[in-house]
Structures are given as C-alpha cells and as structure tokens.
Amino acid sequence: MGGRRFAFPASRRIWPRDKQSGPAPAHLVGIWFGSVGPKANKLTGRTADGWAAPIPHYLPYEKWQGAQDTMSASAVDAGRSPADITRMAQLVGTITDTPGPVRLRGEDPIRTDAAGWALVDLAVATGFDTFVSWPESPGDTQLCRWIGDVVPCTRALCA
After folding, report:
1. What residues contact residue 152 under an 8 Å CB cut-off, 6+ apart?
2. With DSSP H G I counted as helix, E B as strand and the rest as coil, what are the percentages for the chain, rounded to 5?
3. Which CA distances in Å does 143 have to 79, 92, 113, 150?
C-alpha cells in the first residue's frame, strides 16, 4: 500500500489539470480507484475522485456499504466531503422478461425484469450515483434492455 499512497499525488503532478497536449477535455478527468481492502478504501476516501465498486466476484455486494462507510469517514478526516467521491456500482446479471427475487448477496448475479433492476435502493440508500451493467450473455439484447428499460425506470423512480 505504501507506494500507492505516493503514486496518486505523483499522478496529479504529471497529469496537470491546466496543461495538456491536444484539446482540453470538456470536463474534469478524475482519477478513480477500484479499491477492495480497508487501507485502499481509506486512501480512496482521502484522495480519489471516484470509486468503482469491484464486481461482486472480488467484493461481494454485502461488503459494498462497509467499504463506502470507510471511504466516507476517511474523506471527512481529510477535510473532504464524501459527496465529492463518485460511486459506481458494477452489476452482473441478466434482465429477464419476468420478475425474480433480487438478493444482493455474495456474487450471485441479478436475474429479474427491468422493474426489478430499477436501482433505487442502491442509488438512494447506499449513495451509488453511477451504474454499469455486466451482462451474463453476449449480444446487444441486454444493452438495449438496460438503456431502454432499466435506466428510464430508475431515473423516474429517483426523480
């Protein structure tokens, strides 16, 4: 962990926000971590612009809240607002035609209809503000369902 603690400030220095080759980005390009353990989560809270919750195979769903609590406490300790850390949930599963139980435990994939996939609990209760779908099957069907059904449903319920 020691070297990583110094790598982040070095990344900021070699990637200055006010100088770049080529056109300037349209928005701030942040540095995100996909941290798992307590030390890395504390570092994320102190320094990172965002956290990509690892897929449940690497960090089970039920451990996501504890990781966020650690990051938030470290952010406050460092004089930052926890809200300054964008939080991305990476969700594995299949959007089906019929409802099914949604249990965010272990590394079980989510298998339910678009309404069941509506991510209100994750957005409201746990502070995630960005979501990525990891479909279990190839092809564009799942992407179309995510974009056309899950996203609008989640936005409507969170409004």
Report:
1. none
2. 45, 15, 40
3. 39, 12, 13, 10
Contact 90, 128 (CB under 8 A): no
* Distance of alpha carbon 41 from alpha carbon 33, whole angstroms: 9
Q: Give tens-digit pLDDT for 22-69.
A: 777 777 778 899 999 999 999 999 999 999 999 999 999 899 999 999
**Going by C-beta distance under 8 Å and a sequence separation of 6 or more, which residues neighbour residue 14?**
none
Instruction: Please state, for a pLDDT cut of 70, what percent of the chain lies above it.
Output: 86
Q: Which helix (H) or strand (E) holds 120?
A: helix 120-124
The identity of residue 45, as a single letter, is G
Q: What is the pLDDT of residue 9?
A: 61
